[in-house]
Design brief:
The chain is an alpha+beta fold. It has a single domain, classed as Nuclear Transport Factor 2, Chain: A (Roll). The chain has three helices and five strands; from the N terminus they run ααβαββββ. It has a five-stranded mixed sheet.
């Protein structure tokens, strides 16, 4: 690995860490600042695809949480070539919803970034949880790494 590659990976890791911190602080403007104009999200929540990059949808989601939202990442893998990067990780979300339900969820994440005007921007995110293939189609939210 060259020093340049290590530097790029550090820059990408910083973007991901900044997004996690901004989510934790419920700072929608800071989260959105890391998105590219053509950002696409395949989220855990409906709809199947979202292209919304405004702060409003995030603020509405943040309002369903009491206190901070925890986002922790494990097994982060970053592959960067020129102006494109792909990251995969297992993420843990924790916190308490406004109805008192405590959330402790592990999910899979794939994040695509593109260097735009010298800065890494998120162009695509895909979040998922496996489901039980026993006919129940229940999300397997009880799994942990």
């Amino acid at each position: 690995m060259t020093d340049q590659t290590a530097t790029e990976r550090d820059a990408i890791r910083t973007v991901l860490d900044n997004v996690s911190r901004a989510i934790g602080a419920k700072d929608a403007k800071a989260v959105v600042s890391h998105y590219a104009p053509d950002y696409v999200l395949y989220s855990l929540a409906p709809p199947l695809q979202s292209i919304v990059t405004d702060e409003r949808a995030l603020v509405e989601w943040f309002d369903t949480w009491r206190g901070p939202i925890g986002i922790a990442r494990r097994e982060l893998s970053i592959t960067a070539e020129r102006d494109l990067a792909i990251c995969t990780s297992l993420n843990q979300m924790t916190g308490t919803k406004t109805d008192g339900v405590k959330v402790h969820l592990w999910y899979r994440a794939t994040v695509g970034l593109r260097r735009i005007d010298g800065r890494w921007k998120i162009v695509h995110e895909h979040e998922s949880v496996p489901f039980y293939m026993d006919g129940s189609f229940r999300a397997a939210v009880d799994l942990a790494p």
